[in-house]
Each structure stands twice: as C-alpha cells, then as structure tokens.
Design brief:
With 290 residues, this protein is α+β, with helices and mostly antiparallel strands. It has eleven helices and nine strands. Helices cover 47% and strands 21% of the residues. The chain has a five-stranded antiparallel beta sheet with strand order 1-8-3-6-9.
Length: 290
C-alpha cells in the first residue's frame, strides 16, 4: 500500500494536468470476480470513490509488484494506469463512481507523473462536511458525463478537480482528526496577523505549545511548516497588491509584514520567479516609483 501525502499529490496534479475521459457509476455483483484486466493492462488512470459494499482490488504494476486495496465506503483510490487488475467483490453488491483521466499533455522523456503511474489509497471520514460535498459533485459529474461540447468538457474538468480537492482534504482531515481543529485555527490566526512580525515561538504560544511540536504537527497537517506557510501567504497577498498597482514595492512590503523592502524583493523573486517591480510593469503600472 502506498500512503499518499495529500499536499504532494495536489502538487503532482498542478504540475501534470489531466484530461477527463469518462465518468461512470457502476455496480458489481456480490461474490463475483472481475478479471477483465488480468491479462490486458489498464489504459487510463482513475479516481474511484466507493458508494456501498466492499471489494478487494488486486493491482500488479509493470515491475510485477502487487498492491492490495480493500475498498469500502469512505475510501478512494487515485491512479492505476498501465496495471493488471482483478476485483474480488464481497458478499454484497459493490457500487462505485469512477472518473477516468489521462495526462492532458504528453509527458516529455524523463518526466514522471506519480499520480498517473502509481495507485494511492485514501481513507476519509463518512461524517465530515466533505463527504456530503463529494456526493453532490459526483452527481453533478454524472449529469454532464455524456454531454458534448467544449463548455461541457470544461465543466467536467472543473467538477473533477473540485472532487479531487475534496477527496484530498477529506483524507488529510481523517488522518489528522485530533490536530485538525487547532491547526485550522492556527492557519486562520496567521491569515489574520500576517502583517505583524510573527515568530514561530509567538504563534506556538498562542496555542500553548512548544515551537518544535507545534511546527511538526502543523507540517504534518498542511504539508509545510508554519513559517513557510506564513511566507507563502504573505507573498500571495503581496502579488495581489502588486497587480492592483496602487502601491509601491516599499508600501506592499510593509503591508505584508516585511520591514525591509530589499529583503522582501529578494524573497519574492526567489519564490515567484520575478522581482515585484516587474509585476507592476507587467500590469501596466511601472511608472510609479518604488
């Protein structure tokens, strides 16, 4: 079994966009074995969510490595392309929703998309808010599944990514049930106070925790440490202000919590790929002095 990092999977889908090929709601009969891909490998990747029943999915990859997933309500898997597959259904009918997808852009030689070439199992809670939202999204996807036209294809793509995000959030929330509430509060605190001179020790103290433990649990839940989260939030906010064009670089720097505009410019360029002054020029506001 491959245990996924939800943040890393999200990054993979950003770096390797996909094209939705088909959307299906399927029922497999109880106590049956489905072996249509025992000899012929799967040609597409999939996002699969279980509606009812239980089944064992036996995958074998190109290297002969075997993966066994016991699927039931509250579970999903992502990936599975180019694998042998055999499905053993339990003593009740097995119903699921399946979204097939392929890379939107042909992979260049040497590039690797792990969300396509592997199989990841995700465990979610059946009682959180994401579960109901996923039901709505699956129904919406099925309603547009056969509709032709580019606008409908765009809607399928949009709904797929919304469903994917919900599944990743649900899996992360289920995996971090105990820490999730205070981490959400910590994120909200950072989002409110980002313009202040925050430190790891200061933020941790707001939640009566030692900095090392606070940082470890924050990263486990969000995929990044609290200070990196603060930096990314500040830079995203800075980008919004720069694109508006009403503020100089020095003013933007101060508004997002950086007292030194030169340091702010170096951090911005390192993370965003261009200097903040260039953003203002691109947006047509380069005449104001910074």
């Amino acid at each position: 079994m491959i245990t996924p990092d939800e943040e890393q999977l999200a990054y993979e889908f950003i770096e390797h966009p996909v094209h939705v090929c088909g959307i299906y709601r399927t029922v497999l009969r109880a106590n049956m074995i489905y072996d249509g891909h025992r000899e012929k490998r799967t040609e597409k990747s999939a996002l699969l969510l279980v509606l009812q029943g239980q089944a064992a999915f036996h995958f074998t990859n190109t290297d002969g490595k075997k993966y066994l997933y016991h699927m039931q309500p509250g579970k999903a898997f992502i990936g599975g392309k180019n694998m042998h597959l055999e499905i053993h259904v339990g003593d009740r009918d097995f119903e699921y929703v399946l979204v097939h997808y392929l890379p939107a852009i042909q992979k260049e030689k040497g590039l690797h998309s792990s969300h396509t070439d592997q199989v990841y199992e995700l465990q979610m809670s059946l009682n959180d808010s994401e579960s109901g939202f996923q039901g709505e999204l699956m129904l919406a996807l099925l309603n547009v599944a056969l509709n032709p036209g580019y606008m409908n294809q765009l809607e399928k793509q949009t709904l797929f990514y919304q469903l994917l995000i919900s599944v990743l959030r649900g899996a992360r929330s289920s995996r971090n049930t105990l820490s999730g509430t205070w981490v959400d509060s910590a994120q909200e605190f950072i989002q409110r106070q980002y313009a202040e001179p925050l430190t790891l020790e200061g933020v941790a103290a707001q939640f009566d925790m030692k900095p090392k433990y606070f940082s470890h649990m924050f990263q486990k839940y969000t995929g990044m440490g609290p200070m990196r989260y603060l930096m990314q939030y500040r830079l995203n906010r800075a980008q919004e202000l720069l694109e508006i064009g009403s503020y100089t670089v020095k003013e933007v720097s101060a508004k997002v919590g950086y007292a030194d505009p030169y340091y702010f410019s170096r951090v911005y360029k390192l993370n965003k790929g261009c200097a903040p002054s260039e953003v203002r020029k691109i947006m047509g506001h380069g005449k104001n002095p910074s």
